[in-house]
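## Example pair
The file below holds two records. Each record gives the amino-acid sequence first, followed by its structure token line.
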Amino acid sequence: MIVVTAPTAKIGRRVVEQLLDAGESVRVVVRDPKRLSPAVRERVEIVHGSHRDAAVVDKAFADADAVFWLMPSDLRAPDVMTAYVEASRPGVEAVATHGVRHVVGVSALGRGTAVAGRAGNVTASLAMDDLFAEVTNYRSLANPTFMDNTLRDITAILGEGVISGPLAPDHKLPLVATRDIGTVAAGLLLDRTWAGFADVPVLGPEDLSGNDMAAVITDALGIPVRYVQVEAASLETAMLSFGASPGMAQAMADMATAKIDGLDEGVVRIAENSTPTTFRQWCTEVLRPAVDAARS
């Protein structure tokens, strides 16, 4: 039995689909089962609730062979350690109690870099990894920025022809598609011959700058799009406007500053950590349909 948390999120949905396609028995922890597709609901065991809840994970992890762990951000949490580390403790305790042998978690690049200790959400994610690694065999999916974050810019793309970010326009960094993260996670859950703790970098196939991304989006959508650099502090203001607590808003700015200072640049891309989906392919297959839907 493999347990999947956050099964309606982009990554979790991909994990569930691939595990079911492989013939695995899957149990999901979900707050709203109606958000699962009918085809998935018919094929999985459902534990209703939040995986932040000790009673829920205790029930879900009983007799589990492996767990996929994705802790969503909580904008209302007072700080990132509460949002990621403290929220994960019930899951860690349930893993230990039930003797779950393998856990694959969604985390971030940055371990071992000079800025890892002041990187906001990433700092907390790495600390979350450490909790699980103390009690079971654990693989941390060390991810850079998601290509899918560009979906948040659809209004600005259509209204102003702009995407924005805190990095200099020509600062190249890795990007990854969430669907590829799900594929890597499913592969680890299916092949549980590994032991101990390790980071598994998931770098995508290429490094791109903001200017590079804007050029690809322009080609994919057929409309002019340019990249605009913004101050990292402006992300804090934006997060506050979305209802984030001051601590969570500050963490977003801290993470952006750490990326400027090299957080995502500590791992060399090799065949084993390079995933297939290019940003151009992602724009064609994911962004363009989303933009077309927003226009209609």
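Second record, same layout:
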Amino acid sequence: MVNWNVILNIAKTHLLTKIKQTATAALGVTFGIGSYITLVCFMTGLNGMLDNLILNQTPHIHVYNEIAPSKKQPISLLQNVEEGLNIVHSIKPKISQAKIHNALPIIEYLESNTHVRGAVPQIKTQIFYIAGSIELGGNLTGINPVDEAKLFNMGDYIVEGSAEALQNTNNSILLGIGMAEKMSLKVGDRIQVSPINGGIFPLKIVGIYQSGIADLDAIQSFTTIKTVQKVLGKANNYITDINVKLYDIEQAVPLAKRIEQQFNLTAIDIKTANAQFETGTTIRNLITYAVSITLLIVAGFGIYNILNMLIYEKMNDIAILKATGFSGRDVQLIFMSQAMIIGFIGGVLGLIIGFGLASLIDTIPFQTEALPTVKTYPINMNPLFFVIGFSFAMFSTFLAGYLPSKKAKKIDPVKIIRGQ
């Protein structure tokens, strides 16, 4: 029967009598875990920010009518040339409308799918921004502002004004920052736009949009779907695009294929539209976790070396304990207890230091045009990182204490005493 009270008292006495070695071992754990927490919170925060540059603005599935040549040409309908080699030059695209037929019922159908978080309509058209006698070409997109802000974080890219202002103000526009600077316009001013089929429509600027892509910000602007329908002279059911947001991005490919087959539309999934995105994310995550694991392993070896030296300095104490009746198992438990106490104290301090440093980084100013609403360095305070850090502290000190204490268990006290 193990007397834990006696074993823990002896372990505490050993730790306090060699306070410098104990502090060194505990600090080894502390700085190892603290560095791990700081690094992984910072790097995953940056990775998340970079991923959001794509995910925030790109739908998981983009549904639209694509202008393309007919797959079946008239010559292929002739039975006497079915098995021949047909060569047709200068094939023209088939006549088709940009409008999605039955767009509103399709949106209702998509939103009833359990994998779909939301499906929002859009109308995209080319316009001219008119400033006096100057006409500047650009793009106008009709949206449901509140839904776009909810599903695609549009609010993160509005540097002045708000999505709600665009929703609640008739004949309003959210102007790209590049166009606003070109024309010296600000929130509250009015701008005239003209569609390619003619006509002039004055719109009130209720916000400034900045995507971080200069070429896009110089031509892009947003308004409500109703306003675009009025500008184009179209009916209330005129929709050119449907953007779908899913709960699980992995469902994008199969659902896009199903939409194409079911509705005879073009559906582009995010993995096809941004093939480099997944590769970049995978590589960044691989580097992050490789560096983190390496840091933990290096810290583990440092802990092992410190505890190993601590036990060898206690050889006389081991001999005395065995000579007074303590078994080899009791000696092993004493040094294992010391290691676990050091691991616990160092692990807790490491978590505190890591949290403090990560919180400090989170206050450092950081500005980027790609994410104008981000004011400080991004930090990912995932509780899992703290659980992993503390678990590793306990596991590494367990191994660091177990291996040397296993040797101490087999020490012959007579040889040590004679050696003295």
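Notes on the second record: The longest strand covers residues 116-131. The radius of gyration is 34 Å.
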